[in-house]
């Protein structure tokens, strides 16, 4: 059993909702990337989604795009991200790490080479936003190496595709709570509750819900019907400009701890 | 790559041209793309739709466009005959209208009320605003802030046509960023919005659909050559940014193995300088904007900023069918520098009285080179994809002339 499955099994037996924060690797500062990951765990992260910066993040909103641009401007690339996961693993052998990003950096790195290096570093899964199930044969070396391919489902996903996604889901199924880009503000929890319940009934993996979760209140509303809550843009926005390790840790705590508490108070 | 018997058999049902093409998009776009694919595959075989499109192309666009023998240019060069397919004479002044007329009809058949488009040079934006105005549809055009600055006339034209032009300030502030932003709009507003992509890139079915709508260029030219010259050309050439005018000319000739095909990419200040937009000549296979194709990127996979004097060629990817034709050995892709394009622009203006678009001037420059390789009874067919009125300020500024 890999780290992701172990973590979700533990959450289930404890009756807790998972908290999955997303940060862009190397933002706000490449020198503090590993410290930021540990800070996330200290504030209650169950899984870390680490964004691999890409120059053309089509599915992301301005907050994450700007974070990507800042990181790229500081020279952050896939090799750095894998190095940070390696370093993170020296102190944390348990928290699952999922790399989230776009296909081109991995395509250029080479799929087989990436798979070997990612496993070696201690990466548990990948969520490649622009690689839908239909195109995912290129990811065969990743799956063969034991990396979970995290799939996305959306409100626009047709029923027959949804069953395919549910059957193929590994690690967890990431349900995009509405048709839009990351960081957008709209979220009608009543609308998506029924859909998520349906997905959970069919998916062989736990269901995490994201896109539009901004604070403890919205996270708690989602937690009523999801196995885990993903929170990204609001956190990335909060971290922008944090200059020191202490400041990063403090901002993470101030933002994430109330979310964790709200999830646990259910 | 195995021997290709029929180049017209591509793409396959997944939108693949060999290893290129496909649908590399976010989950939220899979359903709208499936809906569009279903609608388009039905409409392209529907005689009523085809007749409607033909009527628009004849009476609104002004087709067929002539094939013109550039006799004085030919004499000046002293080689094979240079024939120009005059897409610059279309309504709105470029080949782009062939595609937007077609996609707007698809949009109407699908019941969409809002059109969005991305644009580089502004030609596709103008062509989209034009068809939106004609059909009474709302139109929003995304354009890089850098391009807005260098293409002010087209920005104003779009506004006159009732379109909203949204400046894009992310990334390199050019065509690729406008495309990202238009994709985001589409993801958010799929219910009522139709995204008119302006080139043969993007996810399936766009490379297929945009190629189909532009393929009339080559079909006409092929028939015109047979009628007027009793033979096919020796070589075709066209400029390649995303590659829509080029595939438009090339497609009808792909199975005519004796016809050589040469695409002219923007070599900018020279490929060796790194300041260029020659994705096929200098790039590598990668994934960008929903398809696998040749891209310009660094070793981290980050898409690199491109340079060309012509905004319409300033794109770090290229249509997947061109990537396929390159790897299959059916077409060659070569670089033409800014300076070579400018020189061809002036030469065509003075010998033929035609101001070509800077994009098309790359093709003219390549046609001149090719004409020198063939005997005087040879034929070089060059797609003159657009007119140059939009570029006169750029040219004046570059040459230090106050207009």
From TrEMBL, chain B:
<dbReference type="GO" id="GO:0004834">
    <property type="term" value="F:tryptophan synthase activity"/>
</dbReference>
<comment type="pathway">
    <text>Amino-acid biosynthesis; L-tryptophan biosynthesis; L-tryptophan from chorismate: step 5/5.</text>
</comment>
<dbReference type="Pfam" id="PF00291">
    <property type="entry name" value="PALP"/>
</dbReference>
<protein>
    <recommendedName>
        <fullName>Tryptophan synthase beta chain</fullName>
        <ecNumber>4.2.1.20</ecNumber>
    </recommendedName>
</protein>
<comment type="similarity">
    <text>Belongs to the TrpB family.</text>
</comment>
<dbReference type="InterPro" id="IPR006654">
    <property type="entry name" value="Trp_synth_beta"/>
</dbReference>
<dbReference type="InterPro" id="IPR036052">
    <property type="entry name" value="TrpB-like_PALP_sf"/>
</dbReference>
<keyword id="KW-0822">Tryptophan biosynthesis</keyword>
<dbReference type="InterPro" id="IPR006653">
    <property type="entry name" value="Trp_synth_b_CS"/>
</dbReference>
<feature type="domain" description="Tryptophan synthase beta chain-like PALP">
    <location>
        <begin position="62"/>
        <end position="386"/>
    </location>
</feature>
<keyword id="KW-0456">Lyase</keyword>
<comment type="function">
    <text>The beta subunit is responsible for the synthesis of L-tryptophan from indole and L-serine.</text>
</comment>
<dbReference type="InterPro" id="IPR001926">
    <property type="entry name" value="TrpB-like_PALP"/>
</dbReference>
<keyword id="KW-0663">Pyridoxal phosphate</keyword>
<feature type="modified residue" description="N6-(pyridoxal phosphate)lysine">
    <location>
        <position position="96"/>
    </location>
</feature>
<dbReference type="InterPro" id="IPR023026">
    <property type="entry name" value="Trp_synth_beta/beta-like"/>
</dbReference>
<comment type="subunit">
    <text>Tetramer of two alpha and two beta chains.</text>
</comment>
<keyword id="KW-0028">Amino-acid biosynthesis</keyword>
<keyword id="KW-0057">Aromatic amino acid biosynthesis</keyword>
């Amino acid at each position: 059993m890999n780290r992701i499955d172990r973590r979700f099994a533990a959450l289930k037996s404890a009756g807790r909702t998972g908290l999955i924060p997303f940060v862009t690797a190397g933002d706000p500062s490449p020198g503090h990337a590993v410290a930021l990951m540990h800070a996330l765990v200290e504030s209650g992260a169950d899984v870390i989604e680490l964004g691999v910066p890409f120059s053309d993040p089509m599915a992301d909103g301005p907050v994450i795009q700007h974070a990507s641009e800042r990181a790229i401007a500081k020279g952050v690339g896939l090799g750095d991200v894998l190095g940070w996961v390696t370093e993170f693993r020296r102190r944390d052998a348990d928290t699952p790490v999922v790399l989230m990003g776009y296909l081109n950096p991995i395509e250029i790195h080479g799929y087989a080479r990436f798979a070997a290096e990612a496993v070696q570093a201690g990466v548990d899964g990948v969520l490649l936003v622009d690689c839908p199930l239909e195109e995912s044969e290129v990811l065969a070396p990743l799956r063969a190496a034991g990396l979970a391919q995290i799939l996305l489902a959306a409100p626009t996903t047709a029923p027959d595709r949804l069953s395919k996604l549910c059957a193929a889901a590994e690690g967890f199924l990431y349900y995009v709570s509405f048709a839009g880009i990351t960081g957008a503000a709209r979220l009608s929890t009543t609308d998506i509750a029924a859909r998520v319940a349906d997905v959970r009934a069919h998916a062989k993996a736990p269901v995490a819900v994201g896109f539009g979760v901004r604070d403890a209140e919205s996270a708690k509303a989602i937690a009523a019907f999801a196995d885990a809550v993903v929170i990204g843009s609001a956190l990335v926005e909060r971290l922008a400009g944090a200059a020191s390790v202490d400041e990063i840790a403090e901002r993470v705590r101030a933002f994430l701890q109330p979310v964790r508490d709200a999830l646990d108070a259910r | 790559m195995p021997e290709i018997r029929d180049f017209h058999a591509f793409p396959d049902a997944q939108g693949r041209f060999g290893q290129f093409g496909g649908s590399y998009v976010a989950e939220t776009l899979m359903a709208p793309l499936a809906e569009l694919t279903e609608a388009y595959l039905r409409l392209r075989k529907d005689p009523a739709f085809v007749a409607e499109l033909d009527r628009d192309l004849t009476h609104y666009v002004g087709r067929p466009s002539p094939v013109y023998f550039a006799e004085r240019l030919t004499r000046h060069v002293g080689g094979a005959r240079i024939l120009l397919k005059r897409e610059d004479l279309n309504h709105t002044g470029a080949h782009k209208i062939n595609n937007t007329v077609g996609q707007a009809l698809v949009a109407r058949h699908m019941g969409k009320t809002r059109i969005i488009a991305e644009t580089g040079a502004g030609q596709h934006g103008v062509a989209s605003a034009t068809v939106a105005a004609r059909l009474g549809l709302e139109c929003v055009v995304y354009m890089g802030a850098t391009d807005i600055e260098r293409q002010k006339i087209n920005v104003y034209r779009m506004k006159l046509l009732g379109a909203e032009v949204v400046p894009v300030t992310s990334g390199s502030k050019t065509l690729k960023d406008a495309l990202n932003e238009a994709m985001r709009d589409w993801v958010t507003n799929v219910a009522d919005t139709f995204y008119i992509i302006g080139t043969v890139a993007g996810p399936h079915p766009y490379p297929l659909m945009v190629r189909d709508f532009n393929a009339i260029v080559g079909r006409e030219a092929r028939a015109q050559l047979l009628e007027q010259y009793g033979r096919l050309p020796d070589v075709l050439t066209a400029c390649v940014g995303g590659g829509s005018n080029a595939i438009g000319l090339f497609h009808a000739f792909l199975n005519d193995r004796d016809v050589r095909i040469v695409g002219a990419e923007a070599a900018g200040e020279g490929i060796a300088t790194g300041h260029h937009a020659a994705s096929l000549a200098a790039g590598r296979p990668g994934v960008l904007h929903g398809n696998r194709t040749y891209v310009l990127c660094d070793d981290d996979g980050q898409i690199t900023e491109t340079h060309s004097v012509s905004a319409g060629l300033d794109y770090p990817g290229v249509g997947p069918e061109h990537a396929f034709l390159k790897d299959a050995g059916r077409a060659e892709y070569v670089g033409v520098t800014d300076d070579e394009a400018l020189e061809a622009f002036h030469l065509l203006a003075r010998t033929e009285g035609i101001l070509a678009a800077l994009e098309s001037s790359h093709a003219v420059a390549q046609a001149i080179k090719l004409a020198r390789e063939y005997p005087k009874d040879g034929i070089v067919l060059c797609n003159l994809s657009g007119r140059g009125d939009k570029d006169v300020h750029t040219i004046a500024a570059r040459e230090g002339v106050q207009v």
